[in-house]
Amino acid sequence: MAAITFSNIAKSYGSVRVIHGIDLHINDGEFVALVGPSGCGKSTLLRMVAGLEEISSGELKIGDRVVNAVEPRDRDIAMVFQDYALYPHMTVAQNIAFGLRMRKSDAADIAARVAEAANMLQIEPLLSRRPSELSGGQRQRVAMGRAIVRRPKAFLFDEPLSNLDAKLRVEMRTEIKRLHALLGRTTLYVTHDQVEALTLADRVVILKEGRILQEGAPLELYEHPATRFVAEFIGSPQMNMFAGTVRHGEGAAVHLNGLQLSFESIDAEEGTPVSLGVRPEGLLLSSGIAADMHTRVDVFEPIGSDTMVSCPIGGTMAVVRLAPEVPVARGMELNLSFDRNKLHLFDAHTGDRIKARANTKDR
Ligand SMILES: Nc1ncnc2c1ncn2[C@@H]1O[C@H](COP(=O)(O)OP(=O)(O)O)[C@@H](O)[C@H]1O
Ligand SMILES: [Mg+2]
After folding, report:
1. Which of 78, 191, 254, 304 has fewest C-beta within 10 Å?
2. Which atom of ligand 1 is nearest to the CA of 38?
3. Parallel, antiparallel or unpaired: strands 65-66 and 211-216
4. End residue of a domain, out of 229, 247, 275
5. Nearest ligand to the CA atom of 162
6. What distance in angstroms lies between residue 213's CA and the mean position of ligand 1's atoms?
7. pLDDT for 236-252, tens place per residue?
8. CATH number for 66
9. pLDDT at 102
10. Whose CA is nearest to atom 16 of ligand 1?
11. 229, 261, 293 — which closes off a domain?
12. Ligand 1 atom nearest to 45, measured from its CA
């Protein structure tokens, strides 16, 4: 069993508290991504699991064992960092074997484990090279090999792909996912890149300023963000936000700049200032009369699978995702409607989600 359990974990550097009472349970074999902006405490949390950082208060368990006071080498977990920290004077094989040598494992066993890891990572032809003779992606594989041969109970990754170019990053992402499927080990993966988190993890935990804002399956976070911060953090391009006001005249409605949207119900008082959120795919092309709004294309980006179109709506620049076959030109008129099933309402002051039922008959 290698579940990882944080119970009210806190961390202070001197008098500055950077982690505020984290409760989180990672199931045995689960892949959890911890994502948040730079400085929110991701590395600190991971380093506390690895034993590289003292835990100020709370209890950390790996499996059934409380490990607060357990030395890093006795925790039976492996960590892969952004800078691979390979030994330059050693070959790939020696680098991968290093940890096992230090533990005085049997030579035949070491050789077998190195061969197995090299096969898994498809780096057999590289075993006699030195790190300086490898590309960034190859070095990253070697760093993973070094973790794999230890057959740890859990893997910890701290932004392992940040130093790679975009194409390689996507390749290695797939590789990490494949390895997890193959090895089935508990994995805690830290990144500031929400796309990486959503594509890799079974469950995503969003951290801000040392606190968990929301956790859930990737699609759950995408479709039901609990706060405006999460709504804007998850998804690319970012969710569009329009400033509006709640009105309860003839039925519930949100009044936007030059536009009214009726709702079946809105769980907020008359006059509450709100942010109405809609993702780029929640703005639909519509025929002239049925449309909620008319605007013009400002810029457009054909990316093959979709075309991203920027256009002014209600005083802000909104992004609309169109099918690639829709002809688009700069200045072209667009008639758009809100997809009533894809609206999000947030309190403009607190940023908290407001419960609302869209009026799907309002077209
Ligand atoms: N050794 C340290 N001494 C003092 N403050 C630190 C130290 N390490 C990290 N911090 C602070 O703790 C906070 C969280 O840092 P970190 O965990 O590295 O964030 P992240 O990995 O999410 O970018 C930051 O405000 C950072 O400045
Ligand atoms: Mg970090």
Report:
1. 304
2. 23
3. unpaired
4. 229
5. 2
6. 18
7. 999 999 999 999 988 89
8. 3.40.50.300
9. 86
10. 41
11. 229
12. 17
